Amino acid sequence: MKKKKALMIVLAVLLLGLAGLVLSGCDGDRELAAPTRLEITNDVLTWEAIEGADGYTVEINGEEYKTQNNSLDLFEITNKYGAYEIRVAADSVTEGVLSSDWSEQTSLTLTIPDWFGFLPTDDGKGWETAVIDATKAQGKLIIPSFINGKAVVRAKGFNNCTGLTGVIFPDTVEYISGFGNCQNLTRVRWSAGLKEIIGNSFDGTALESIVLPEGVEMMGNAFGNCTRLKSVSLPSTLTKIGNYVGTPPFSGCHNLESIEIAAGNEVYASDGNCIMRKADNTLVLGLKASKIPSYTEHIGNYAFRDSGAESIALPEGVTSIGDHAFYDNDRLKEITLPQSLTSIGESVFFRCTALGKIAIPDGVTELPYRLFFFCTELKEVALGAKTEKIGEDVFHMCGKLERITISESNAHFKSAADGRFLLNKTGDTLVLGCQDGAIPDGVKKIGGKAFEGRTGLKEIDFNEVEEIGEYAFAMCAGLDRLKLTSAVRTIGDGAFQNCIGLSTVRIPDGVQSIGSFAFVCKSGKMVGKGRMNFKMAPLVLVVPESVEQFFIDSNYTVYTDYSSLPTGWSVDYGSVAVWGCELGYDDDGLPYVLSAPNTFSGDGMPDLGYTAIEGDGYLMHGRDSFRFAGWATEPNGEAEFSSFEKSVEFEPFGEAEKENYYLYKKTFYFSASMTEEQCKEAALSGAERLYAVWEKI
Predict the structure, then answer these.
(1) Which CATH number is associated with domain 33-110?
(2) Whole-number Å distance between alpha carbons of 597 and 581
C-alpha cells in the first residue's frame, strides 16, 4: 500500500512538471498585432501592414477571403446592395508566432442609387435598365438579378454617364448596350449568361483589360476608342464580330497589345494578334501589334480600321482587301501590297493621312470609290499593268500628290510629264493631275475630278483643252487666278467649286456651256432635319453671249452683253446681273466691261447667306495690270461715280473639318461703285450708258 501511494506521488510530480513545461512554452510565443486603419477606397479595402505577417484573412459577412497583401479587391465581392461587416486578421505560419485577433469591425453599406431604374422588356417577361439622371451617376453600378420576381435581362441606357466607374452585371443579363462615353468606367463584372454586346456599347470607356465569358455569341463595334485597353480575351462561343456594316469592335484602341480567342471556336482562331476566320483564311481583325499569318488569303472589311498601325506588309498569297480595311489609320506611313493581290475594296485607305507612297500590283484591275480619299500626305502612286478603271473620288483631297506612274504595258492609261499627269491611252483626255497645271499638248478634255482637292495647284495653262469635266478643279484652294482660253467650249458642273482663292472669273468668247455651281464657294451647316444654312464667298464673272447655258448662283455678280435673260440661263434669288454690257477683250482673249446701261439700282450686293456684308455698291471684276476707277457718263471720260474698296469677310462655319480644310477664313477685296446714292445721281444725269474707267497700273 505504501509502495502504491509513493508511485502515485511520483506520477503527480511528473504531470505537474510537464504542465509547467507546456505553460513555459506558451509564454515564449509572440502574437501578431491586429490590423488597424481599415479603409475602403474605389472598391479596394486596405489596412496598415503588420510586421511579420505571412498573409491576412478578411471576413466579410462571415465569409473568409485570403490575401498575401494588406489589401483586398472588393469590386466583385460586394456585388449586391446591402450592408457588409468587415474585419481583418493577420495570419502567421511561422513557428513561435501566433496569428492576430480580429481587427475592429468596419462597415460598408451599398444602397440602390436614385439615378437609375427599370423598364419592362417588350415581351413583358423581364426588365431592362434605364438611367434617370446621367449627371448623378457616380461610382460602381450594381444591377440586381431580379425585380419583383422577374429577371433583369437587358442592360442599357447609360451613355455619357461620365461619373460611372464600374458595373456589376448579374448572370441574368443576356444583352448589353449603351455604356458609350462613360469615360471613367474602368471595371466590369460580366454576366455568365451574356449572349450579345450590341453596337458601340463601351465606346470611349477606360477599360484596360477585357475577358469575355463563354456564352457570348455576338459582339458589335463595342469597344471602339478605348485608348487604355491593352489586352482582350474572347470566348469560344463567339460567332460574329463587328456591327451590321462591319465596323470592328476595337477601332481606335491604339494601345491594344494582344488579342486572343479561346480554343475550340468553330468560326474564328487567333494567330499573331490577329483574329482569323477559319473557313476562308480571312483576317477579320488586326491590331497595331499584329503579325499577319503567312496563310492569309483575304483582309476583311474594316479589319485594321483606326488600329494605329504605322507599317504593314501583306504576305504573298493575299488576293483581296475588303472595303475600308485600313480606314482612318492616320499613323500608317507605308504599306507593301503583294503581287498576288487582284482586288481592292472601296475606301481601303480612306483618311490614311500619313501614307506617303504606294505601289498597286499588276493584277489589280480597278481603283474603287474613295480608295485614297483624304490621303493628304500621299505623293507618289505607281499603278500596275492591268489597271483599267479608276473610280470616283479615288484621289479626293490628295493635296500633295506629285507623281502617278503606270506600267508602259497598260492598255488603258499612260503617264505624262514624268508622272505629273495620267492620260488615257490616246492622250486626248487627262484623267488625273497632280500639282502641275501645264496641261500637256493634245489634251482636249480634263476628266471629272481630275485635279479635285489639289490644294498646291497655283495656276493652270489650259493649252488646247475644249472641255473641263465636272468638279475637275473643285477644292483647289491654292488657285487664285484663272485664265481660260478661247479653245474651251464646256465647263462642267462644280468645275471650280470651292476654289476659295478665286474672286474674279472672266469667261472667254467661245465658251458655250457653264454647269451648275461651277464657281460656287460655300460652307454649310446642318440646323435641323433636312435644313442647312450657308455662308458663301463673293465672285464676280464676266460672261459673253457665246454662253448658251448658265446658272447664276446667289453669290455671283455677273456682267454680260446679253440684253436680258436668255433661254438656257437661270438666275438664283439674291444674285446680281448687269445686262446689256459692252465688252472688250484683253490680249489674252479675256473679256472686260467697257460700258453698261445706266440702270443700276438698289444696294447692288449679292446674297451671301450668313456671310456678313456691309454697305452697298456693285462689285467690279478684276483685270490684270488695271484698276477700276469708276464710271463716266461718256466714252473716255473721267470717273464721275468713283470706285471705292469693298471688303467681304468670309469665315466657314465652325472649325476646319477634316474633309473641308480647303475652306478657311479669308477677306475678299474688290473695287466697287454705284452705291444707292450714286445710282440716284446717275439716273438724274440723263446718260443712257455709263462707261467703265480703267487706269493702267
Answers:
(1) 2.60.40.10
(2) 7
